Amino acid sequence: MSDDYYLELSENPVQFENASSVNNVFFDEANKQVFAVRSGGATGVVVKGPDDKSSVAFRMEDKGEVKCIKFSLGNKILAVQRTLKSVDFTNFIPDYPHLEFSHECKTKNASILGFCWTNWNEVVFITDQGIEFYQVLPDKRMLKLLKSQNINVNWYMYCPETAVLLLSTTVQGNVLQPFAFKTATMSKMTKFEIELPVVPKPAKLSLSERDIAVATIYDQLYVMYLKHHSRTTNSPGAEVVLYHLPREGTCKKTHVLKLNTTGKFALNVVDNLVVVHHQSSQTSLIFDIKLRESEGPVSAHQPVLPARSINPCKIPLTGPAAAPSQAPVPCELYSSSWSVFQPDIIISASEGYLWYLQVKLQPTLNLLQDKGKLMDFLLRRRDCKMVILSVCSQMLVGADKRNLSVVATVFDKLNQVYKEYLDAEQAYTTAMESGPSRSSMSYKRPVRTQAVIDQSDMYTHVLSDFTERKGVNHKFIIAVLMEYIRSLNQFQIPVQHYLYELVIKTLVQHNLFYMLHQFLQYHVLSDSKPLACLLLSLESTYPPAHQLSLDMLKRLSTANDEIVEVLLSKQQVLGALRFIRSVGGHDNVSARKFLDAALQTSDTMLFYTIFRFFEQRNMRLRGNPVFNQGEHCEEHVAYFRQVFGENALMKPATV
Q: Rounded to 5 degrees, what are φ and ψ at 234?
């Protein structure tokens, strides 16, 4: 069972003073910071962030209970709300006076519900009567109003990743008005309505902020609505309804996640997966909205995997009762003191810990039996490469020809992603080579994600091991290799020569020369110089390989030098000379190379023929049969003189 935990809490949580030793604990989603606030005399604040740079401790004057506290981006300015009318600011910028200044909301009789930093020096106040967008001027210790909007507000929610603010309006609170923020600008987006369950009259439901979360999934902004089970409907349980919120255009309901149970839930988003925590069963479910199970404008989704608990873990005991040598204690999972924040944060105020929720991919292999669906799931995950390669290796263990269709499906899914990356890389290169233009400026270099499994990955981690595995039917090995090559060809991806070499070596190892001959004859294996050289090396095992190699080199047409080298190495000196003459390269070849090869044959008449050929070439090109000093043929001339005599040397033409 322990192998089944596909969710875990981060190994090194952020630790802060727990709720028993401080008055209040606040979390700032924009900076991922926990503020532990202790009052009494002066207010002590300890801020813990994801790293030491974002952690800070300070004291401030006690001016009443802190309702909200947040740093602007980069810890430059601190904002503290203590009343319903104003927010206090303190500069933390180096060399600026460390003084506090205050700002009241401009709308009379309005109460400030909270505030959000949208930039290091821009803040928005949310009141029950609207929003006020300000620029903070730290040097002047004042705020400048940039824009405001009057609207009745029940509650608000801010997504720091996209700088989009959601306001709940109307009596039932289910009409949401989004605003988008960008440097010094505030834009009103199209409002939309969340469909509430129908309840018997006179009862009326209202939308609570506890049932709403905002998060980015696959680079798109979604509003997630936790729709609780209604007895008046036939629904077997609660649902999470996803509304896609584009920057421009209308917000639409696009996905429904079926929870198939009722109770208390909380939502996270991890690695583009929606994670739904269920408190009473102490389990979590994960959904992938890209795994479409139904066509149409709204897709219904079942959980990708069976419900599982977060992996149990232990934490050091904190607080006054803790002794330094005390052993860690089990963490209370799904505790009622847990607070869940987007996208992937879980905080236990009672224990004083902040964790990042993480997905473990390895356990999913045993839980998702459909290899095609598993591959679709894995290819969209962040750290997927080694897990995908292990799936490919495991898939081939104990498999036979009946599994080939599954193997083909997996290869096609991998190569589709591989091809998309290659095309994007090619488009980027072409755009850059064409010089700067409006179209080329829009191209960004494609990011090579871990989902790009190329030929070298497959060769190194899967196929080369597979071909050497004992007890596997060699016909199945060849079928798998050819299936991978077929898939590459289908996506028009040039096959690397080492894959063909793997096929040839496997065929030779099992003496399947007839199949090798057919593969070459019908060009199943594409021509290449490395392949031709491999064929040459097989001549002692399979003599026809020599001719097959030469034929391949001739077809390549750019391999004339290689063909000459091959023929000379086989002491076929006249054959090499005939070939080089047939392609018109005989005026440029090295005389010494041919004369060396002729000497090594110990055939004096062959040496005579080759020597005479090059004398005649010298005569034709320079009007003199004598070899130039730069050709380094002195020893060959000496040998010729020794064997055939001085008079056998050609004489220069006399005028």
A: -85, 5
**CB burial class (10 A; 0-12, 13-18, 19+) of residue 314?**
exposed
Q: Kindly provide the b/e burial profile for residues 150-164, where b requires at least 16 CB atoms within 10 angstroms of the residue's own CB.
A: eeebbbbbbbbebbb
pLDDT in tens, 79-99: 999 999 999 999 888 878 778
Looking at the chain, the number of H-run helices and the number of E-run strands are 17, 32
- What distance in Å separates the CA atoms of residue 474 and residue 481, rounded to the nearest whole number? 11
Structure tokens, 524: 């199943």
DSSP for residue 627:
P
pTM of the shown model: 0.79
Q: Report which of 159, 95, 94, 166 is spatially closest to residue 126, judged by C-alpha positions.
A: 166
Q: Quote the CA–CA distance of 509 and 503 in Å, as a whole number.
A: 10
Q: How many CA atoms lie within 13 A of 49 on its CB side?
A: 18
Q: Give dist(CA 619, CA 617) in Å, integer.
A: 5
Radius of gyration of the chain (CA): 38
Which residue type does 28 have?
A: D
pLDDT tens sequence across 112-140: 999 999 999 999 999 999 999 999 998 88
C-beta separation of 537 from 504 below 8 A: no
